[in-house]
Amino acid sequence: IQTEELHFGQIFASNTAGTVTVAPDGSRTRTGGVTLFGTIHQPAEFAGMGAFNQRVQVSLGSNSIFLTGPGVRMRARTFVIGTTPRVFRIAGPTGAFRFPVGATLEVGANQVPGTYRGTWTITLNYQ
Fold first, then answer.
1. Considering the entire predicted model, what is its pTM?
2. With bands split at pLDDT 50, 70 and 90, how would you rate the model's confidence at 86?
């Protein structure tokens, strides 16, 4: 299940395009004409439940989606799952586990401010 949504945080666009990246560890960086503001950014977080020592494979449905909002749509890409390797054994005796996911957002020149949303898929294959 998703326990936290991916938030790129507050940003200011300029007349130059750029990107905002939120890493699985919660760090945030930028390129180009994007200015970062505030501290409300965060990676997505997912939780699962299985049996102790059970193998789980984590995969993405797509590594590129579009976010829609009040302006031109933006692309979120290069999703990074914060567990290595993508197939792991559940180590906790309760069978519960969590993992973060980060991504990069492409911000257009003069991007209209507002909230942009999109949908993406994470699949857990219990083995």
1. 0.92
2. confident
